[in-house]
């Protein structure tokens, strides 16, 4: 179980995916400060976006000075099992959405899929 008010995010840019944990009361600016050393992008160069809830899969720009909870994130929408996705756009890239899918892991070996029956 996650600690109270912890929110889990997967920040995406190109083929990089950063997993970060913040509190509901923290701001988008706090998220940028956490991402800066991980991504090696300047926080001034970054704009952060969340996925639209519409079917068109647009991204909505997040305001730096607004708390994560006021941006609609809560423990149900940003859990350890299903982190909220955040898009990192760089000013130098313009309006380009630069995200590559991560590869799918190989299937689990048969021995790990179901418990083995003990031999008598």
UniProtKB/TrEMBL annotation:
Q: Positions of the region Disordered?
A: 101-120
One GO biological-process annotation of the entry reads:
transcription elongation by RNA polymerase II
Which InterPro entries does its entry note? ELOB (IPR039049), Ubiquitin-like_domsf (IPR029071)
What GO cellular component term, any one, is given?
elongin complex
| Alphabetized Gene3D superfamilies for the sequence | Phosphatidylinositol 3-kinase Catalytic Subunit, Chain A, domain 1
Quote the protein name from its UniProt record. Answer: Transcription elongation factor B polypeptide 2
Q: What is the lineage of its organism?
A: Eukaryota, Metazoa, Ecdysozoa, Nematoda, Chromadorea
